[in-house]
Design brief:
Number of domains: 1
CATH superfamily: Iron/manganese superoxide dismutase, C-terminal domain
Largest sheet: 3 strands, antiparallel
Strand content: 5-15%
CATH architecture: 3-Layer(bab) Sandwich
Distance between the termini: 38 Å
Shape: globular
Number of strands: 3
Length: 199
């Protein structure tokens, strides 16, 4: 199978996100779930390459599956890099903090809204902070599964995975505790860089 994409190496050890994510959960999530999206994406791209040479494929199903798996791969890339070991995520940039306060009222209110978005995702999905450069506005959205309800083309600044495989081993059905602990492990330096690039 061709390797168009590869599983990225985490920017921290599997033991460095405790007590937010256990070694077991992080290892399974990264090496099984994320790797699965990478493998599936590569296989689907290989199938599309084969179609150039006359190989018969179900185009609709292939493209739908490719969107699901490639989006899953990309969202996980963003997720791992917007996390950092507790106390090592840096300070939030003044530009980003000012924008969050302007668009959400305060940092606390932003965290409340983002957390509510994460906790209220129906079934599997993500909470995301995005930036609309054309109207200079930060917005929160929910991404159902991997490829529904995303504001197309708006750069994603921060995501939180709320698929059950992201937290169930450590938190069982208490998604709210998982979401609350997330804030101590945000890599604000990375989120700030994405904001500066998006502007």
């Amino acid at each position: 199978m061709s390797e168009y994409y590869q599983l990225p190496t985490l920017p921290y050890g599997y033991d460095e996100l405790n007590p937010f994510l256990s070694v077991e959960l992080l290892t399974i999530h990264h090496t099984k779930h994320h790797q699965g999206y990478v493998n599936n994406t590569n296989k689907l791209l290989e199938d599309l390459d084969g179609a150039k040479n006359g190989q018969e494929i179900n185009v609709k199903d292939t493209l739908k599956s490719l969107a699901f798996n490639l989006d899953g791969k990309i969202l996980h890339d963003l997720f791992w890099s917007n996390l950092a070991p507790s106390g090592k995520g840096g300070e939030i940039s003044s530009d980003l903090q000012m924008a969050l306060e302007q668009d959400f009222g305060s940092m606390d209110r932003f965290k409340e809204i983002f957390s509510q978005a994460a906790n209220s995702v129906e079934g599997s999905g993500w909470a995301a902070l995005v930036y609309a450069a054309d109207i200079k506005k930060l917005m929160v959205t929910q991404i159902e599964k991997h490829n529904v309800n995303l504001y197309a083309t708006l750069p994603i600044l921060m995501v939180l995975d709320v698929w059950e495989h992201a937290y169930y081993l450590d938190y069982k059905n208490d998604r709210g505790v998982y979401v609350a602990k997330f804030w101590d492990f945000v890599n604000w330096g990375e989120v700030g860089q994405r904001f500066a690039k998006g502007k």
